[in-house]
Amino acid sequence: MNSAAVYPPLMAPADNMFGNVPGYEGTVAGGGYLPPPMPMEPVAPPQPGPVPEDWSIPSLSEDAASEAFKSFVSSHCCYRDGPAKDGVITSMEPFNTFRYRLETFTESRSTEWANKPHEGEPADFYTQTAPRPWEIQAPPPSLFTNQTQMIRVPYTSSIKDCHSCHAAGTLQCDKCHGNGYKPCSVCNGSGKKSDEENCTNCDATGKDRCRECDSKGTKKCETCKGKRQLLTFIQLKVEWTNQVEDHVVQQNSGLQVDDLRSVSGKELFKNSQYLCYPLFGFPNSAISEASERLIREHQSKYAQTSRILQQRQTVELIPIMNVNYKWKGNSYVYIVYGNENQVSADYPASCCCVIQ
């Protein structure tokens, strides 16, 4: 320990003394994100990923389309099964589409003033130089997994009187205003039920015992938990976040993009690197453009306030089939989509279920 080190008074306000900690000069109660340090070594540029060989997607049979329709109808209590049971498929038209997904796994760090009830921990403020925020070891979770970790920064702890109770350990009970009792709930504090009869609930005292404070008039301070003092320190918040963004290529089936969020498709391509390379030359130009745009946007949005640990890009081919059918001489259509064979339809045979 350096005998020449300057030690703050143990009761010093935390927000004042933290301004003297190198690397934490801006730490305040509200906290704030900290830009990551520059890499120590040059980062290799992203490399083009492998080109997949199979762009095909299994076709949907009439039997599978019919079974999906029947399952859809059975899940709706108000749908009669006539169209699904007796309808005849006349034609099927595919509207398969691509979904591009970019995941950017980031680590961000922020610091803020924090405190906890003092339970005998030593005050280590300035006994050594506090490590800077990005020097503190925090092993990340599995890639692309969200997680948050709170770390007490070493050599930033001090002891101060509790600001809530002024080191008393207790606070006035807000239910009885420190009296230990409240007006009787039966007689409203009068002590009588009627002009001639005393209140038996309070024995004519007009008072009820305050159960919130056990009639003491005070309650344990919630800030210091009755310890009277607080350990104050700089708290480091480390957040690992998987930033996910999708782009679905426009299709003319009539489905909305939101309809496709709940289904999966055939995975055509997956590539994971520190920084992904745009999918130039993809058979569908809209995917190439989305890949280039999202990679550029993620770099701009996240690299300034967080550290990018890994990126992953995926392309799925989502099956969409418009099924035309006839029922009772009229033509109708339903849509089967996703690997899960979800169905969207304007059903022609429903009844009104009214709950009285």
Mean residue pLDDT: 85
According to DSSP, the number of beta strands is 15
Query: What Rg, in angstroms, do the CA atoms define?
Result: 33 Å
End-to-end Cα distance, whole Å, is 79 Å
Largest sheet: 7 strands, antiparallel
Structural class of the helix and strand makeup?
mainly beta
Q: What is the N-to-C succession of helices and strands?
A: HEHHEEEEEEEEEEHEEEE
Ranges where pLDDT stays below 50 over 5 or more residues in a row are: 1-17
Helical element count?
Answer: 4
Helix content: 10-25%
- How big a fraction of the residues is strand? 25-35%
Shape: flat
What can you see in these coordinates?
This protein is mainly beta and 356 residues long. 11% of the residues lie in helices and 32% in strands. The chain has four helices and 15 strands. Strands 1, 3, 4, 5, 10, 11 and 12 form a seven-stranded antiparallel sheet that branches. The protein is flat, with a radius of gyration of 33 Å. It starts with 13 loop residues before the first helix and ends in an 11-residue tail after the last strand.
